[in-house]
């Protein structure tokens, strides 16, 4: 029972330390091992994808420039809009971090229900955005082994990023390092696909080394 002389509405400092009860600090197994385990989860996803679906030269010959004009225009415009949405997402992250002071504080102020809704929305949003861009990108550059990793690695990073949010809120702010790393992987993969799509559709005369390599391998293995 609280002390009858203690005024909960007073601005005076609390002198009795026993009144304040804080949850215990998480063990190193959780605060350090948790983020490391999450990184291994990302690597395990990539390994399993490579194990179950190894790379092989496709029989498909595909170029975005061979699509009907309406399809090229629609895909090109959709790619630009996805790029605009991507940068608005970055602006939102910058605003929220500035408003709350840190990622830890941002998720600490988020209710459990809000985090569930936040996770649901971003799982759909990340998956849809990278799926719509990743399919035509991967089909166009289907002869380049390392290009076939951009799409799935971006998705794996997005999923790992979302899981790390729960770690930040309920376990340790150390999960923020995983959030930043996965955000960089996802953002880099997504931006690389956006640039590649826009370049192929709107600026076909602007050719990079991967274009020549992709076409050379297509001629070598028709």
From TrEMBL:
Superkingdom assignment: Bacteria
Keyword Membrane included in the entry's annotation: yes
Key words, A-Z: Membrane, Transmembrane, Transmembrane helix
Ranges that cross the membrane: 32-53, 74-95, 115-137, 149-171, 177-202
Official protein name in the record: Uncharacterized protein
Lineage: Bacteria, Pseudomonadati, Pseudomonadota, Gammaproteobacteria, Moraxellales
